[in-house]
Amino acid sequence: MDIRVEVALQLLASARQYLDTLLDGLTDDDWFWVPNTGLGSGLEPPYCSHIAWQVGHIAMAEYGLMLFRQRGRAEVDLELMPGSFRKRFAKGSAPSSDRTGYPTPAEIRQQLDKIHAQVLLEVPGFSIASLDEPLDPPTAGFPTKYGAMLMASQHEMIHCGQIGVLRRLMGRSPVR
Q1: pLDDT tens, 19-45?
Q2: Of 33, 93, 130, 169, which is most buried by a Cβ count within 10 Å?
Q3: CATH code, domain with 112
């Protein structure tokens, strides 16, 4: 395996290990907890967020950056990223304090785990030459397929930071 692919997968593994520590011990209610701003039971978007949205968004982004942006659509994608999941957690979607429109935390974790397992299955087999292929916007970092791979772990860590803040606002101890 190319060293660049190894680096991208190791960074992703490190981010996932941190995410797992942040999620350990949370209840289903914790996943949908929204900070009370003092203006009622919490504000609707763009001011509210919850762990369920954060984790679903991480799953959607890992699929997009590590699979879709690398190889386009594949048959397995219908199971990995159903349209309803993508729409609920896509970039630009707004978290809602109404949890009735969301999958359960167990279902979100299952989707996250399925996507991650597919990444670990497919990414080592991607063409090394393809890593330097340019990507159309939007991109972050550098606009290549390899840049998208590196962004996956950075993106996950950004949302880990938001989950960490939500945990602290709940009164939970930091994990690091």
Answers
A1: 999 999 999 999 999 886 655 555 454
A2: 33
A3: 1.20.120.450
> Which of 86, 113, 148 lies closest to 23 in space, CA to CA?
113
Report residue 145: phi and psi, to 5°.
-60, -40
Q: Is residue 68 part of a domain?
A: yes
CA distance 93 to 113: 21
Distance CA 125, CA 136 (A): 22
The burial of 173, by beta-carbon neighbours within 10 Å (0-12 exposed, 13-18 middle, 19 or more buried), is given as exposed
Structural domain range at position 109: 3-24+44-169
**Which residues neighbour 11 within 8 Å (Cβ) at sequence distance 6 or greater?**
150, 153, 154
Instruction: Give yes or no for a contact between 144 and 135, defined as CB atoms under 8 angstroms apart.
Output: yes
| Within a domain: 58 | yes
Q: Assess if residue 66 is contained within a domain.
A: yes
pTM for this entry: 0.93
Summarised one tens digit per residue, pLDDT across range 111-166 is 999 999 999 999 999 999 999 999 999 887 889 999 999 999 999 999 999 999 99
Distance, CA of 119 to CA of 140 (rounded, Å)? 20
Q: What's the number of domains the chain is made of?
A: 1
pLDDT tens for residues 155-172? 999 999 999 999 999 999
